[in-house]
Amino acid sequence: MSVPSSPAAPSSRVVIVTGGSRGIGRRTVARLAADGYALVVGYAGHREAAEDAVAEAVAAGGRAVAVRADVADEHQVAALFDAAEDAFGGVDAVVHAAGRMHLAPVAELDLADLDALYRTNVRGTFAVVQQAVRRVRPGGAIVTFSSSVLGLAFPGYGAYAAGKGAVEALTPILARELRGRDVTANTVAPGPTATDLFLDGKDAETVARLAAQPPLERLGTPADIAEVVAFLASPAGHWINGQVLRANGGIV
To answer: 57 with 41: CB under 8 angstroms?
Structure first.
């Protein structure tokens, strides 16, 4: 009987974080850096923010580089993984936090906006996961993102929720396709979380109403979600596999 390879110790693990320049992705970079991980901060258009995230990671005790990549472009995604291997020798975990949001009632939705949303959130997930499946080392982890809005069913979120539903459908299939590889695949589905992406366009009354929904009576924070991601990406979370974790303070 074969014995799986032992997962790399946290101090030697290499993690790619897409969308690592802002919001939950950036907080995840800082959280993993505090454990001494080597980080590749993937970003699309916010170079200065990505460089700031790298500086914060290094200050926290990690090693980090920033690499620009459009997650929906398979060639740029492959180059992102190449950069991780060139800089740090391999990849042990991938946290795919890059995403796009567009809100509109279904009847008013511009299908060009739908195409752009799906290009990032669905095609981008497949492009990143495809490389992750090929390259993540034994003992590693793949973490993608959905949203608790699938259960909350807020009006205006139809396109966004449908794309995230695709990510959730992929998760258990991916875990099964990874059989024998000693690599896990899980999805984190945050509830309302105080990020720029979430707060954009919402008035104070709407934010207060959403914050009152969880039994814990507040919005989530990027730090709350980063703790969940850090667990799943670490050897400590390796027995969790093929799951969607709804990190939302108990609203669904």
So the answer is: yes
